[in-house]
Amino acid sequence: MSAINLKQLAGQLGLSSSTVSRALRDSYEISTATRERVQVMARQLDYQPNPYAGSLRNNVTKTIGVILPEVDNHFFSSAINGIEEVAQQNGYHVLIYLTHDSEEQEKSVSQYLTSGRVDGILVSLASGTRNISHLEKLKKLEIPMVQFDRVSKKLNTATVTTDDYVSGYKATEHLIRAGCRRIAYLLVSENLSIGSKRMQGYLAALHDHHIPYDAGLVLNGSGPNDENLVRIRHFLRQNPQVDGIFASVERLALSSYHACQSLGIAIPKAIKIIGFSNMETASLLAPSLTTITQPAYAVGKEAARILFHAITKNKPVLPAQSIELKSELVVRASTQAGSQPTNARFVEVCQAVQAVGF
Question: What pLDDT band is residue 164 in, cutting at 50, 70 and 90?
Answer without folding.
Answer: very high
